[in-house]
Design a protein that fits this description.
Blueprint: H1 5-12, H2 18-29, H3 39-46, H4 50-59, H5 65-79, H6 96-116, H7 120-131, E1 136-140, H8 146-159, E2 163-165, H9 174-179, E3 184-189, H10 196-207, E4 211-216, E5 229-232, H11 245-262, H12 264-277
Parallel strand pairs: 1-2, 1-3, 3-4, 4-5
Length: 284
C-alpha cells in the first residue's frame, strides 16, 4: 500500500511557498485529474512556471514528473475499484488459518498506515469544530458508510448536545437542506465508490456555510474539494469488499479526543445520561 499523492501533499502543506501553494490548491481542487495533465498544463492551470511544478513534484518525493503521474494513474485505478475488480487474497481452497493470517496482516497494515499518515493539524481542527458549543453537529454517509455516521453520532450525543445523524434520502430531506447553515458542522463519510448524493448534500451544506469534516479513503472522495477537514483512512481488506476497521478506529480516536477536550462538561453529561438509563438495559 503506497503513499498517495494526496497524503504527500498533506505532509508538506505547512512549509510550501506561495507558488507551491498554488499548485497544491489546483491539485486538491481537481484531484487527481489535474496532475494527469502535462507539467506545462498544470503550471498554466496553477498560474506558475513549469520548472516550479517540476521542483514541487520533487519536493513531494518523486524522482520526476513521470513517476508522479504514474502514482496518480495507480490511484485512479484504485478509486474505480469495486468488489468485482478487487481480487481476494485467499482462494476457495484456502484453509482457515490462511484466511486468519491474511486478515491479521491486512488489518495491521491498514491501521498502521492510517495512523502513520494521519494529518495532525486537520485532526485537531476536527476536534475543535466538534467541541465548539456554538455548533450543531450532523453526521451522514452513504449506503455502507451511514453505519459509521450513526456510530459516531451515538458517541457524540453522550458527550455534547446538539448532534444528529441525518439520513440523506433524496426528496425527503428538504428540512435539513433548508436549515443547514453557518451554525453547523457536517461530519461526512464517503468512501470508494463515492456516492453522488452524499457528495452533493455535503456540497450543498458547504455552500450554505456549514463546515465539512470528511472521513474518506486515501484516494479522496470528490467532497475533499470543498471539505474544511479531510481525514483519510485505509480500507483494504482480505475480501473484495472494503473494510471499515480503520475508519472505525479513526472515528473512535476522534471520540477520545473530543471527550478529553470537553473534560468536565462531557463527564457531567455522561453522568446525567447514565442517571436517565438506570433501571433499564443498555449496550455498553
Amino acid at each position: 500500500m503506497g503513499v498517495t499523492v494526496a497524503a504527500r501533499l498533506r505532509r508538506v502543506q505547512g512549509g510550501l511557498s506561495r507558488a507551491e501553494m498554488k499548485i497544491a490548491r489546483e491539485l486538491t481542487a481537481n484531484y487527481p485529474a489535474a496532475g494527469l495533465n502535462s507539467a506545462s498544463g498544470l503550471a498554466s492551470q496553477a498560474g506558475v512556471s513549469a520548472p516550479t511544478v517540476v521542483r514541487f513534484v520533487a519536493r513531494l518525493g518523486f524522482d520526476g514528473y513521470r513517476q508522479f503521474q504514474q502514482s496518480l494513474r495507480e490511484e485512479v485505478q484504485a478509486r474505480q475499484a469495486s468488489p468485482l475488480t478487487l481480487a481476494p487474497v485467499i482462494g476457495a481452497d484456502s484453509p482457515t488459518s490462511e484466511l486468519v493470517e491474511a486478515a491479521r496482516q491486512v488489518g495491521t497494515a491498514t491501521l498502521g498506515q492510517t495512523f502513520a499518515t494521519l494529518p495532525e493539524q486537520e485532526f485537531d481542527r476536527a476536534v475543535e469544530l466538534i467541541c465548539d458549543p456554538a455548533k450543531r453537529i450532523a453526521c451522514f454517509g452513504g449506503r455502507f458508510s451511514q453505519l459509521l455516521a450513526e456510530y459516531l453520532d451515538l458517541h457524540l450525543r453522550v458527550l455534547r448536545p446538539g448532534t444528529i445523524v441525518h439520513t440523506p434520502t433524496p426528496g425527503r430531506d428538504a428540512g435539513f437542506r433548508v436549515d443547514v447553515g453557518r451554525r453547523d458542522v457536517c461530519v461526512v463519510f464517503d468512501f470508494r465508490r463515492y456516492q453522488d448524493d452524499t457528495v452533493e448534500l455535503a456540497r450543498h451544506a458547504h455552500e450554505r456555510g456549514a463546515k465539512i469534516v470528511l472521513f474518506t479513503d486515501p484516494w479522496l472522495s470528490p467532497a475533499a474539494e470543498f471539505a474544511d477537514v479531510v481525514l483519510p483512512a485505509r480500507v483494504e481488506a482480505p475480501s473484495p469488499f472494503d473494510s471499515i476497521v480503520a475508519p472505525v478506529a479513526l472515528a473512535e480516536t476522534l471520540v477520545a479526543a473530543v471527550h478529553a477536550r470537553l473534560g468536565p462538561a462531557a463527564e457531567e453529561r455522561m453522568r446525567a445520561a447514565e442517571d436517565t438509563l438506570r433501571g433499564g438495559t443498555q449496550d455498553s
